[in-house]
Amino acid sequence: MKTISVYEAVGTVLAHDMTQIIPGEYKGSRFKKGYVVQEEDIAVLLQMGKQNLYVLDLKEDDVHEDEAAMRIAKASSGEGVELKVKGEGKVELVAKYDGLLQIDVDRLMELIDQDDVMFASLHRNQMVKQGQVVAGTRIIPLYTSNEIVTTAEAVCKDNPIIKVEKLKSLKVGLVTTGSEIYHGRIKDAFGPILKKKFEELGSEIVHQIITDDNDDVIANSIKQLLDEGVDFVAVTGGMSVDPDDRTPSGIRKAGGEIVTYGAPVLPGAMFLLAYIGDVPVVGLPGCVMYHNASIFELMVPRIIAGHKPSRKDIKALAHGGLCRNCEVCTYPNCSFGKSF
């Protein structure tokens, strides 16, 4: 930024907004930051009492905020993301369709470590809706050097920072355990809730088997569903430490390789994740039936998207894994699950 005489200002770029006051008539911004001074403006500026102006000392390769923001937004955007110009140097990144938001956090940190670059996003690993703003970017000054923008683009060269993954449409097999349901003493309430939850994620429960609390029967039911070609197995009931709760041992007997039994999440502590070959098998605790947001919302969309969460991924949920149990649930617009 430099100071010049108003008489030498034609063609220069203003470094800040300039307010005009006409007593009794008008007070407001007469010239905006970034405005290129024209010959006819000189008289107006003199009437405003401006003999000298602060203008930008631009170099030949400097890039305007609008161009810089668009270049950074394009470089950082991957599948499922489109761009929307907001004006005043800002570009929003918007979800093209419903899906799972993914952010390369390491690259994001590297990007914003560049001088003058601002980039803010939603938290990763949450479901987003078509048309939802998932990130925004701009540069801090009105102009920056082309070198800074080029360096920012290079950070994103191999892999975009942000993308929205479409969920797969899976055939889900459901094993509902519990002697009280098997013998008809009570009606199954879990199945209809899971049916709705999976449908909202674009998958379908194709077969539900109701079993007694017997680990051999549970194992055989899981094997039956696998023989029928399901892509995903969910087992409900029998996930606590009661002697009649046989779901974990049933999953093991079916050949399940346990990733974790237990998750640092409330609600959802008794969650189990295993794999039989490439097929995920989840043991879902009863809290999934009663809460709008639980371990189901944190983990199942990731699995349906094709991710294979590790024990470390699940243990990382501890920081942020406590639901506030708000009177009106606003998930995912809250802190629940925002650690991973």
Automatic annotation (TrEMBL):
Catalytic activity: adenylyl-molybdopterin + molybdate = Mo-molybdopterin + AMP + H(+)
Signal sequence segment: none
Domain MoaB/Mog: 173-305
Alphabetically ordered keywords of this record: Magnesium, Metal-binding, Molybdenum, Molybdenum cofactor biosynthesis, Transferase
Cofactors, names only: Mg(2+)
Single GO term (MF): molybdopterin molybdotransferase activity
UniProt EC number: 2.10.1.1
Pathway(s) it belongs to: Cofactor biosynthesis; molybdopterin biosynthesis
GO CC list: cytosol
GO biological process: Mo-molybdopterin cofactor biosynthetic process
Keyword Signal among UniProt keywords: no
Keyword Transferase listed: yes
Family the entry assigns: Belongs to the MoeA family.
Function of the protein: Catalyzes the insertion of molybdate into adenylated molybdopterin with the concomitant release of AMP.
Name assigned to this protein: Molybdopterin molybdenumtransferase
Encoding gene, per UniProt annotation: moeA_5
